[in-house]
Each structure stands twice: as C-alpha cells, then as structure tokens.
Design a protein that fits this description.
Radius of gyration: 14 Å
Order of helices and strands: HHHHH
InterPro entries: Ankyrin_rpt-contain_sf
CATH class: Mainly Alpha
Strand content: under 5%
Helix content: 40-55%
Number of helices: 5
CATH topology: Serine Threonine Protein Phosphatase 5, Tetratricopeptide repeat
Shape: globular
Distance between the termini: 36 Å
Largest sheet: none
Length: 109
C-alpha cells in the first residue's frame, strides 16, 4: 500500500500524525512490523527522526517495546544517512538524540 502512494505525495502522506502525534512509522515501529518500517523509512529517511507528542522517535519506540529486528532495521537505515555527516564531524560525541525523548529520558529511565 505504501508503494502505491505517488512519489510527489508520499512524504506528506507518510508524515501525517494521529492525535498522539504518531506517524505510520511510529505505529509500525511500536508493534515491530519490520517490512512496513523498512518500506516507509527507506522511502523517507527523515521520518526516522520524527517525534510524537511525547517526544519519542520511531527508533525509540522499537527499543521501548523490545522490537529488536525493527530497531536494527531503522538503526541501519539511519546510519546509512549519517555516514557522510559522521565523516564531517569526526572527534565529536555520537548523536544519541533519536534514542532519547525530548525530556532527555532514554528507554532505560
């Protein structure tokens, strides 16, 4: 179904949020629906860093709900996006912001 969305509309459609601020990627991540996570995130990598109303990213939700395969998928896709950024930022602290809520709590808190 995701593949049927016209390319010019897909970011707008996939960025739509429900009343809790969750996108379709948040929902797929929370239940560990690996194929949907991969399909959505590979189409628009920026959706991996989208936050819901609690400040949670889809990557955060995969870890919070114990969905290891979905976590590894999103982590891998996001890392592909940031390889070039990492080269530019050598020597700096790694970006862990996707694994934290906006209140700075991690899944371990």
């Amino acid at each position: 179904m995701v593949k049927c969305i016209p390319a010019e509309d897909s970011l707008n459609v996939l960025s739509m949020k429900n009343e809790k601020g969750n996108t379709s990627l948040h929902l797929a991540a929370a239940v560990g629906w690996l194929t949907i996570c991969e399909c959505i995130a590979s189409r628009h990598l920026e959706l991996i860093s989208t936050r819901n109303s609690k400040g949670e990213t889809p990557l955060f939700l995969t870890a919070y709900h114990g969905k290891l395969d979905a976590f590894l998928c999103l982590h891998h896709l996001y890392n592909q996006k940031t390889v070039q950024e990492t080269e530019k930022n050598k020597g700096q602290e790694p970006d862990d912001s996707l694994c934290r809520r906006e209140d700075r709590n991690t899944i371990l808190n």
